[in-house]
DNA sequence: AAGGTGACTAACA
DNA sequence: ATGTTAGCCACCT
């Protein structure tokens, strides 16, 4: 199973109402340095994927997506729909990590 | 088939 | 404190 597959598997474990960061996922698979690759993997997902990619944000708690198919505003809406509060200021969407960050259980 | 191209992040200057 | 850089992987020419 390659890196991308691992990413999808882990992202799928993030429960509704919680979020995870790219670095967090990367650290679980290999090294924390692969954070960017996590983003690459999500970018490669088909539009109709079942993977809850919207629950993955950057270490600042900000929506970091760069994909014309899914504008940031759309990701923000998806998260709000799941009960997550998304603040919008300075033209940036942000989530309170202290509140919503998901902690993966060991193993 | 080799190389460019991305949803990041922590470490440095 | 703000800007730059290295490390990382699969997919598409």
TrEMBL record:
Transmembrane regions listed in the UniProt entry: none
Family matches, as InterPro entries: ATL_DNA_repair, MethylDNA_cys_MeTrfase_DNA-bd, MethylDNA_cys_MeTrfase_DNAb, WH-like_DNA-bd_sf
Any one GO BP annotation for this protein: DNA repair
Gene3D superfamilies (alphabetical): Winged helix-like DNA-binding domain superfamily/Winged helix DNA-binding domain
SUPFAM superfamilies: Methylated DNA-protein cysteine methyltransferase, C-terminal domain
Domain Methylated-DNA-[protein]-cysteine S-methyltransferase DNA binding: 2-84
Pfam families: DNA_binding_1 (PF01035)
Keywords from the named record: DNA damage
GO MF term set: catalytic activity
Protein name, as recorded: MGMT family protein
